[in-house]
Design a protein that fits this description.
This protein is 50% helix and 19% strand. The strands form three sheets. Strands 10-9-8-11-12 form a five-stranded mixed beta sheet, with helices on both faces. It has a four-stranded mixed beta sheet with strand order 1-2-5-4. The chain has a three-stranded antiparallel beta sheet with strand order 3-6-7, with no helix packed on it. The model has no long low-confidence stretch (mean pLDDT 91). With 412 residues, the chain is α/β, with parallel strands linked by helices. The chain folds into three domains: 1-104, no CATH class; 106-239 and 366-412, Nucleotidyltransferase, domain 5; 241-362. The chain starts with a helix and ends in an 11-residue tail after the last helix. The chain has 17 helices and twelve strands.
């Protein structure tokens, strides 16, 4: 094999000409520099759209790109990059086949960095690749933007889940949309209101919005209002987890009120220690927890009534069809006459959202995929010790959950 071809293969610059290779520096600071130039086929192309364009000037002199290390030695590509005049983008740097536009690292280096960031903390990746953590974040955003521009993530959506997640203190949220059929995160944007969701439907377009058949969500009114306006044919399914969350929260509210009323009596300690016994499923109770529930059944009728209401709701949302609707209607009536204000409030909420709950019972669709995505994003946030901006979190989310993680260089 000729030396020139060998260097082209090692450096990943098959469509360029290697003019010279050399080492610079001494000792641990030694770096490898390969001087290259564009082949005739790749010259005079716009850096953004890759179309051939007239030459504007010779640029600002030689430019370097960091590429994958050669053993323990950092390696760079060096080339003169002119500027061209594009009809669409104006004056900009000419495209190079080994790097993305406006990048200072080669495509192979950035793909390697992005893949590692999907698997490990940024601090570890930065140490391994000998870059700063800010550089790794910029690389992720650039890689995600590049891959997202090649794929329409919103194409073919039929069943989606909508949910929000707090990415920072101070009620700062990101709204996420997940495809139930693929499990992928397809859209994310900062905010938690109608304007944010309207932006999603604007990106989706009227034609594709009309193809949606199911939308799963929690009880947020701003989600229901926008979906009914933008995709009226889609069935809104209320997430069963949130329904049970409302009920268990009401039950715990009753328990705390009973505990305050019983203090300083000995029975107060029994109520306080029975929290997990009351919230768990009867099939999962330990022997001691069964005894706690039995004692409450005999000594605290209001609290035991709340416990029975909780179990009745668990049964109701698990049953399909007309029987499930009847059980839900019976639960609402029972909760309203239970003389427990906490459950009366939940009953009013469920009565208001009853059509969405019926859809859930008939379609069997939950927000589980959205909740799984939220859990993954919390892990990313904890691993990174927080993100300075929602754009950084969204880029990492699309990299790991949106199917925009590149292949390792040389593995495709």
């Amino acid at each position: 094999m000729r030396t020139a071809r060998l260097w082209k293969r090692l450096l990943g610059v098959e469509s360029a000409v290697v003019e010279e290779v050399s080492f610079e520096g001494e000792g641990a600071e030694t770096v490898f520099v390969a001087r290259v130039r564009l082949s005739a086929k790749e010259r005079s192309r716009c850096g953004r759209c890759k179309r051939r364009s007239p030459l504007y000037d010779r640029g600002s002199g030689p430019r370097r790109w960091r590429t994958l290390d050669l053993g323990h030695t950092m390696a760079y590509l060096e080339a003169d990059i002119p500027r061209v005049t594009c009809l669409e983008h104006g004056v900009c740097s000419a495209a190079v086949p080994w790097a993305r536009h406006a990048a200072r690292h080669t495509t192979s280096f950035e793909d390697m960095c992005a893949w590692l960031l999907a698997e490990a903390p940024a601090s570890s990746v930065a140490e391994l690749l000998r870059v700063t953590w800010r550089t790794t974040q910029a690389i992720v955003e650039r890689v995600v933007a590049d891959l997202a521009g090649r794929t329409d993530l919103l194409e073919g959506l039929r069943r989606i889940g909508i949910d929000e997640i707090a990415y920072r203190k101070g009620h700062r949220y990101v709204t996420c949309v997940v495809d139930h059929d693929t499990g992928r995160l397809v859209w994310a944007k900062e905010g938690r209101n109608s304007d944010t969701l309207n932006q999603f439907f604007s990106d989706l377009g009227e034609e594709r919005s009309a193809l949606l058949t199911h939308v799963s969500a929690d009880g947020a009114e701003w989600i229901h209002t926008v979906v009914e306006a933008k995709a009226p044919q889609a069935l809104i399914c209320l997430d069963p987890f949130h329904i049970m969350q409302w009920v268990t929260k009401a039950l715990d509210g009753v328990r705390r009120k009973m505990w305050r009323e019983l203090q300083p009596k000995a029975a107060a300690s029994q109520v306080k220690g029975a929290r997990w016994a009351l919230l768990k499923s009867p099939l999962e109770l330990t022997e001691d927890q069964r005894i706690s529930v039995a004692v409450i059944a005999k000594t605290n009728r209001p609290l035991y009534r709340g416990y029975l209401l909780k179990e009745q709701m668990r049964t109701a949302i698990a049953v399909k069809g007309a029987e499930g609707r009847a059980l839900l209607g019976g639960w609402v009536a029972w909760a309203k006459r239970s003389r427990l204000p906490e459950f009366k409030e939940v009953a009013n909420t469920i009565e208001r959202l009853r059509p969405y709950i019926w859809n859930t019972m008939e379609q069997g669709l939950s927000n589980a995929r959205s909740e799984a995505t939220n859990t993954h994003l919390r892990v990313l946030t904890r691993r990174a010790y927080g993100f300075h901006s929602p754009a950084a979190l969204i880029a990492m989310a699309m990299l790991t959950r949106g199917g925009l993680c590149p292949e390792l260089p040389g593995r495709a």
